[in-house]
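Appendix B. Raw example, untouched.
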Amino acid sequence: MRKSSKIQIKINFAHCLTKQQNFKADRKMKAAKQIPIHDVEQSIAERFDLIAETFADKLAVRDGNTDLTYRSLQEKANVIANHILTLGSGEKQIAFFLSFGSGQMVAILGIIKTGCAYVPLDTSWPAHRVEFSIKDSSAAAIITDNINIGQVKALSGDRVIINIDELDFSQNTQRPTLTPTADDNMHILYTSGSTGEPKGVYTSQRNQLHFVKRFSEYINITPDDIFAYYFSIGFSAHAMQSLGALLNGGTLVMYDLKKFGFPGLAGFFNKERITVCLMIPSVLRHFRATLDKDFKINELRTLMIGGETLYFNDIKQIQPYLKRQTEIINIYASTELFLACAFRIQKDTVLKQNIIPIGYPVDGIEIEIRNEDGKACEPNQVGEMIILSQYTALGYWNKAELTRQDFPVDGNTGRFNSRDLAYRQSDGALVHVGRKDAMIKIRGQRVDLGEIENTLLFSKDMQEVAVVLKEDPVGN
């Protein structure tokens, strides 16, 4: 049994659970044209076209240089899609290597409109990782821009290169004649792999739409919402914010964190009237350190935090800068599933422990905690999180054995062996405590220590390598 923390801050978990269950009553649908997702037996592309035609003149994406309405975004995505369809390739994967900005959103939507899976390549990745991802995914083409075309030419082999800066976006703006299906693959997202090389997580448009459905319902997204976006495209959370906004008629406002840094982020939140954002705890701490004593984030209604362990002190440090109505939600999500469980924290929520729970499974998700023998753990007993859902990822691209290990058949229900360790409190809330393997989280991204070791060993000067994790005093 785990001993309770010495930190005793008044708590009534029954009260907290009631807030978890009844939150939806606090925020009714305030937008007349809100379009709930009732049917996941459609493609992401079909859902986007419905939204784009409903909110044609509404701002969809802003990146500091370009403002795109839903009509403009749809037409640009159609141009990309129609161009891809002229290639006639047998492969159904299209990669993109683009600078941060609205072009990334255009590429994602354009690719999935063809029924192809998008493969995002981060411009900050080392060349060998980009090259591996291109080859492993069997990408038929790579979308890039003038800034990055030189690097793409060096890594793409004989693949087709599409330079979006040379496309004529005034032509072929009509919707493609091909209609994707819910069964078409959505993406291949490369993460660090426990085998020492990246692994590509792939899923269907159906399963990704179900994620958007449960995310939208959990925080009640409306077309009035304005989402902050500052993620590297190599971080799977890019899909959480972008799809959450663009499949609900909201606005996605992009902030280049690498270029402008944390000092400008506070002003960005208030200038753009951000209502929803996702932060990694380490990002939250850096952000908090830049805030003036009297600063307030005026419009933010939902602050989601995930990707790393969240501590009581993190909540204590950020709450003075939030309005009373702002809700903090600690989430558990993974590339293989996206949003799986969450824990709501409001101004009057009281906490008694240092580590904030990841909370309760969201709709469509069941989570079991099992020991090494595969048996259910007792409350407060640490075990592996086994996630049951019809809407998990389909597996790991070109890694059949790893797919069999992590996505075993479990009756009629999809199953994902997460390799994450957690325990269930007596009130049912889950607390995440670490990983089974050598995987760690840095700034919310999975990093496999074995992959780093293997990369270092490529050097002829290296004989033996050991990579260890070191934390600073505040937990980064």
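End of appendix B.
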